[in-house]
Amino acid sequence: MASYIEDYALLSDMNTGALVSRSGSIDWFCAPRFDSRAVFAALLGEREHGRWLLAPLESVNPAPVEEIRTERSYRQNTFILQTVWFVGDSSVRVTEFMPLSGGTTIVRNVEGLTGEVTMYHELALRFDYGRTIPWVTRYGGVDTAGKADPSTDMLVGMAGPHALVFRGDSLPEGDPESKAETFTVSAGQSYTFTLSYFASNHNPPAPVDYLTALTYTQEQWGEWSDLYTPATVDEEPPAADDAGTTAQATVISAVRDVEQEYEKPSSLLDAGSNTAAPEVDLETYQELAQTAAQQIVVPTASGLRNEANQRYRAARLRSLLLLRALISRETGALVASVTTSLPEVIGGKRNYDFRFTWLRDVAMAMDVTLAHGHERETAQLRNWVLRALANNPRQIHAVYGLAGEKDDIERRLALPGYEGSQPVRSGNGSGDRFQGDALGQVLVTFAHLREQGVAEDHLSWPLQKALLNAATERIGHPDRSMWETFGEPAVYTHSQAMLWAAFDAGVSAVRDFGLDGDAAVWEHCRDTVAEDILTRGYSQELGCFVSTYGGSSVDASLLQLPQIGLLAWDDPRLLATVERIEQTIRHPSGMIYRYDNSDSHDGFEGQSNPHFVSSLWLAEQYIRSGREEDGRALLDTVLDKANDLGLMSPEYSFDEQRLTGNFPQALAHISLVRAVQALGL
Question: Distances from the Cα of 496 to the Cαs of 106, 491, 542, 553, 626, in angstroms?
């Protein structure tokens, strides 16, 4: 059975990713691209669907003899994972990463820290989501003199066009379906293992030198993160404010409680000493205790605020690093997630393939990457958008493949599913559904790029003009909203608002930047859409905006109305809409759902779980409309529900205390960056 979603860590080489669980099993790995067929698919099935387990033997025993615990973290500003296993009094460190020096390789190193630890090593190679078991051959290595050299032996697994080569300081043995072994690591010893994908009509790639690859990969991640370094927090001495005075009084009160039971002060003042302390009378003890209490450093209100700000900055940096990890070096696309079919509700049917690129995600990502100095990645994303849209502007899709291809065929995979959640999908059939928000988001982002000094070229502005002209035919056109519901199409307020933003961007391009275009037509369209939104998308009876024209419900997409400039953040109509959102789709935790699904309009029965993206939009709304403390509180709630490495999926189940949905999700981290930006940090 797979681990909980939050127990996974991401490894990435910026072309694909692998998920390694806290228990030491790589249960998901697609090669050579994010959207390739999985080599390890135990995440959606069982061990026989492919995995690579490397962990202390005690941890896989049904009844471990020794106490086992783990501590894990990424090396600073990287996706190099380090896990320390403590087995009784012994310990080892496992370092895992995907080199950024080319190829598709996973590197795992086991280093003995204290005592001796016996490691269990199991390798179950698969292709095609566990369906194909490769033919595995062991090749003996030779040294430079042509003599047999076991240290250079390798396992090669091959099936059709695909091949994998496994190298290591110890090679597991076994049947064709899986290889397993145990080996003992003592303090100071080190074992390294590598697994590389290659096309079967090529020779296996050269061995990877562990230290060289580690150093280069760390430098590359560091070079990227150095473009954005969080501001340092000013250290402040403890102030004698109300919080400090109260806390200090509490300490003194506790000391007086001890005084009442005073018997042997020497044991209190000299705890742990092997020599007897001299007798201390009560008066002297009271004086010493009062002095100690006065010297205690108590967190002040300003100190707590600085600590919170540090936490927000760190979360923003990890989110920016995640975006880089999910941007394909090969194509420039931003994959929404590295997984498919992880359920939004455990055991439910809201299971989708997120190994695709949504125009909305790319457009929003460009805003945050450019704002943080990542011009190269912004250019990659921009160029990907232009290539993807370089076709009939009247056939714009919401979702594309990583190379900009349109693949609307959704397939069912013969896998058990995560905790039995069916169906398991490959492909995303929502790509052929028009979504007005996608078109609008792209044109809004290109407007932001112009404002930042990014010049239009021979392709970018002509393509935007074509999209604008096509958008004139979409005014009042029903769709299935940005949430891609399966109910009857409707005219969604948010979709129309994004068309308004598109036309507004077109008018600005002509009027403010001197580009050619029919500004008068676009201006008329913009004003027409605005009037429709303010009349048909606004309920006089409820006193707020509603999800659909003439409807009576609200959804989280309405929180984007001020983001695109249609309304001010503190517009009374918007504040009333926020209040309605709080009344109808807010969870007791403060997080919110995407929408109210009491009528099953999304095609599934039952409500999904509270949504990270929507909740972060609400946090941003709070902050920018003058409710900063509410925004901080909600931001804290969201960060508390991310996993220990700061990674988020789309949703969180408070009933089960678990992350749900595909993991990790790019849009959730884009939204987190925006919320922290709103604080001005």
Answer: 45, 8, 20, 16, 27
Question: In the structure encoding, which two tokens stand for residue 22, read together?
Answer: 């806290």
d(CA 319, CA 322): 5
Q: From its phi and psi, is residue 115 left (phi > 0), alpha (psi between -120 and 50) or beta? A: left
Task: Supply the DSSP symbol for 232.
Answer: P
Q: Which residue type is seen at 50?
A: G
Please name the residues in contact with 236: beta carbons below 8 A apart, sequence gap of 6 or more: 300, 302, 303, 306
Packing angle, helices 572-584 and 612-624, rounded to 10? 140
- Whether residue 664 is preceded by a cis peptide bond, meaning omega within 30 degrees of 0, is yes
| DSSP assignment string, 45-57 | S-GGG-EEEEEEH
494, containing H or E segment? helix 493-513
Region at 526 (left for phi over 0; alpha for psi -120 to 50; beta for the rest): alpha
How is residue 126 annotated by DSSP?
Answer: -
CA angle, 641 as apex, 635 and 645 as ends, to 5°?
Answer: 100
* Residue-wise pLDDT tens digits, 51-99: 999 999 999 988 888 899 999 999 999 999 999 999 999 999 999 999 9
* 230 token code pair: 């969080």
Encode pLDDT of 195-204 as tens digits: 999 999 999 9
Instruction: Find residue 104's DSSP bridge partners.
Output: 197
Question: Residue 69 carries which DSSP code?
Answer: E
pLDDT tens digits for 421-458? 999 999 987 655 666 678 898 999 999 999 999 999 99
CA distance 310 to 639: 13
Two tokens, residue 587: 């969870």
Task: Return the closest-CA partner of residue 97 out of 22, 193, 30, 170.
Answer: 193
